[in-house]
Design a protein that fits this description.
heterodimer, A: alpha/beta, Hypothetical Protein Ychn, Chain: A, five-stranded parallel sheet, four-stranded mixed sheet, 7 helices, elongated, B: 60s Ribosomal Protein L30, Chain: A, Phosphoribosyl-aminoimidazole Synthetase, Chain A, domain 2, 2 domains, seven-stranded mixed sheet, six-stranded mixed sheet, 10 helices, 13 strands, 35% helix
Chain lengths: 201, 316
């Protein structure tokens, strides 16, 4: 199996973070990481060396360097079981998005913040159990929304995405829903009652 | 800078020649002014803390010369569309640190920019006979570092959500602490060379301090550092700047094989508002350290200076 991480345009330590993530998901095979500067390449080389992984460096041009890393068979598996353990204890965090903006103040800033909040959620380890969206929060789940891909990513990783049906009706967006299922007030309350921790940006 | 023409002026004492921290200009036999400037984008989320760090960092250059800050001017880049309250908090943090330094914040200049940047230009005074320069380590000296290393690594880990609250707290405590207090301690002793540790990392700034006739031996097990930084370094949450420092120093530094990877990274790690690195006679070392320890930040005797033997810097 061969995988590629394109870390072009990412500043350190992000290329390393993305590479470690990819290696965790792999059991054997080759990982190819593309970076746009020699320093990032050197940091990746340092990482491969310290992890005891075989690697090969390739310079395509001044702005394109590639490190080919041979993924370790065992590290991926160990990582998988750790992930599963994490998944089991992740069942208690519930994220409540009651607006399409984060915080009060500037509207545009609020949208930008919300987008990066949802992105940051996808990077959490462990992931939350559920994301509840109500009032203008449901606008984050509709087709064309810039938070849609990240919410879909969360759903693909087992996070339940629950959208308030009344709210979708109110905004006449029911047919535009792009991710998750439609829920009611009973479930919205019950989910929060059962939550170990409620996160409300 | 190397490409700019040099102006000769007998009163211009320190500046161009030795990659120094500040410019020093002699006014009378016993009075010189020290002038510095530094500004950068935020490395922490809290605007008030960012203001404090930026000011502590800008003031630090003055302390590293053995001078006392007297006036300061704000340098501000701030997006017009951003909440002005944020800027108020930044400036408040900066102003409090200038006040703590005993200097006067006299004003400043701000421009509209796509990103936030903040810093200050600081002017201080010093007796020209008592200026510390960042060259002049002598064989027989010990090297003392007054703050823990690793704040660059911790901030880098924080950017990707991997830093613990206690690690960030330690980093912020260190970055917001004025070098004033450490400078007041070392001023009472015969200092041979002094600098503050910032972007070039501990080894980079040490490299500047050493002349061609000396070698510094660094004790890798005596380096004050933020404990979590070692762990984050082992997770490779490291910066491009640290690797650039490593590349730059490739031919000057020998790291013995038993030195752990984490500590190696910490030694190359670029610091914001880092501590003073002081070279002074061995006899004074323990006494200075005892006084510095009372200030409450991790510090230590981190190495010694000897006649040149082998590489310029040996980490063991």
């Amino acid at each position: 199996m061969k995988r590629t991480v394109d870390a072009t345009g990412l500043a350190c330590p992000l290329p390393v973070v993305e590479t470690k993530k990819a290696l965790r998901e792999m059991s054997g095979g080759e990982l190819e990481v593309i970076v746009d500067n020699i320093v990032s390449l050197q940091n990746l080389e340092k990482m491969a060396k310290q992890m005891g992984l075989a690697y090969r460096l390739e310079t395509v041009s001044d702005a394109k360097h590639i490190i080919h890393i041979t993924a370790d068979e065992s590290s991926g598996e160990a990582e998988t079981s750790r992930k599963q353990a994490d998944a089991r204890r992740s069942g208690d965090a519930v994220v409540v998005l009651s607006s399409d903006r984060m915080g009060r103040g500037d509207e545009e800033l609020g949208r930008v913040l919300m987008k990066s909040f949802v992105y940051a959620l996808t990077e959490m380890d462990p992931l939350p159990a559920k994301v509840l969206l109500y009032n203008a929060g449901v606008k984050l789940s509709i087709k064309g929304s810039d938070t849609l891909p990240d919410l879909q990513k969360l759903e693909a990783q087992g996070v339940e995405i629950l959208n308030c049906g009344t709210c979708l009706d109110f905004f006449q967006l029911t047919s535009e829903l792009g991710v998750g299922s439609v829920t009611n007030m009973y479930e919205i309350v019950q989910s929060q009652m059962d939550a170990g921790v409620i996160i409300k940006p | 800078m190397a490409k700019l023409p040099r102006v000769e002026d007998p009163n211009f004492l320190v500046g161009f020649d030795h990659a120094d921290d500040a410019a020093v200009y002699q006014l009378t036999d016993d009075l010189a002014i020290v002038q510095t400037l530094d500004f950068f984008p935020p490395m922490v989320d809290d605007p008030y803390i960012f203001g404090q760090i930026a000011a502590a960092n800008a003031l630090s250059d003055v302390y590293a010369m053995g001078a006392v800050p007297k006036t300061a001017l704000n340098i501000v880049c701030f997006p017009e569309k951003m909440d002005i309250d944020i800027l108020d908090r930044v400036l408040q943090g900066g102003s409090e640190k200038v006040m703590e330094a005993g200097a006067v914040l006299a004003g400043g200049h701000s421009i509209d920019d796509v990103d936030v940047k903040y810093g200050l230009s600081v002017t201080g005074i010093v007796d020209p006979k008592r200026i510390y320069t960042n060259v002049g380590c002598r064989p027989g000296d010990v090297l003392i570092l007054t703050k823990p290393l690793g704040v660059g690594i911790v901030c880098s880990a924080d950017r990707v959500g991997e830093a613990s609250a206690s690690a960030m707290e330690a980093a912020i405590r260190s970055m917001t602490t004025l070098n004033k207090y450490a400078a007041e301690v070392v001023r009472r002793f015969p200092v041979h060379a002094c600098t503050d540790v910032t972007g070039f990392g501990f080894l980079g700034h040490l490299h500047e301090m050493l002349g061609s006739g000396t070698t510094a031996v660094i004790y890798s097990d005596q380096i004050p550092h933020i404990p979590e930084a070692l762990h984050y370094a082992e997770e490779f949450l490291i910066t491009g700047a640290a690797q650039r420092n490593r590349n730059f120093l490739e031919n000057s530094v020998e790291i013995e094989p038993q030195v752990p990877f984490g500590i190696e990274e910490v030694l190359f790690d670029p610091q914001t508002s880092g501590g003073l690195l002081v070279s002074l006679p061995r006899e004074a070392g323990e006494q200075v350290l005892a006084e510095l320890e009372k200030l409450g930040l991790p510090c230590g005797i981190v190495g010694e200076v000897a006649d040149r033997g082998g590489k310029e810097i040996i980490v063991r």
